[in-house]
């Protein structure tokens, strides 16, 4: 297969992305990634930018076929196929909805056989549905335990090399923490909601978040606060230097739809 440069008009395979061979089983699963014995759909929740009063991205959240909470049907036998199917369906759904902002897709690092190979399904889905690679964020939860930290960092580096943005979700509540940042600097980190809950009344949380924001700024990493539920939390986070936020205060996930962000009650910051 020939290689191409990435572009807004024709997202495709990046330069130097040479084909690699996996096992017959791996390649067959990749080509049939959508074939699972259970169905699922997506709800999309916006991540807002308070500085521009606009939507920065939409996170794709797995739901059941009728919008119900997704049943736990992922196991060692279907983990790889589920991860591949999630990518394709999220991109296809975002394209069908006319999404013009970034799309954040959760992925399972323990479902990756080889990053250079397993990413092909995503590249092809982006090409088919006209969704530029630069608008796709791959988001991994810090709670997804990965025994081999350097290997995990290599996965993220490969995704970044292909033109995707990378994010670590639930930062501050999982296994990797600062040690992962030492090995790899993602484009974004999402602060766990447990860290920002009642931050307006908790001096320790406020101090931790302020210093995390400074540290990330030094490494050119953007910070997203997730799970924001009150105006007081929003204002405290804003004062700490965070302008990307996600939570029920702004919008609930919209099933098979794009939800607008709520900015009506947001006070204009005085310069």
Please give a quick description of this structure:
Helix 2 runs parallel beside helix 4 (120-128).
Description:
This protein has 271 residues and is an alpha/beta fold. The chain has one domain (33-255): TIM Barrel. 32% of the residues lie in helices and 19% in strands. It has nine helices and nine strands. Strands 1-2-3-4-5-6-7-8 form an eight-stranded mixed barrel. Helix 6 (178-183) links the parallel strand 5 (165-171) and strand 6. Helix 2 packs parallel to helix 4. The longest helix is centred in the N-terminal third of the chain and has 18 residues, at 79-96. It starts with 23 loop residues before the first helix and ends in a 16-residue tail after the last strand.
Q: How can the largest sheet be summarized? A: 8 strands, mixed, barrel
> What is the CATH T-level topology?
TIM Barrel
Please report the distance between the alpha carbons of the first and last residues. Answer: 53 Å
Mean pLDDT across all amino acids: 79
Spatial arrangement of strands, main beta sheet: 1-2-3-4-5-6-7-8
Please bin the fraction of helical residues.
25-40%
What is the name of the CATH class?
Alpha Beta
| CATH level-four homologous superfamily name | EAL domain
Order of helices and strands: HEEHEHHEHEHEHHEHEE
Low-confidence stretches: 1-27, 30-34
* CATH architecture level-2 label: Alpha-Beta Barrel
Into how many domains do the coordinates divide?
1
- β-strand amount: 15-25%
Q: What is the 3D shape?
A: globular
Query: Total number of helical segments?
Result: 9
Query: What is the total tally of β strands?
Result: 9
**Category from helices, strands and their pairing:** alpha/beta
Radius of gyration: 19 Å
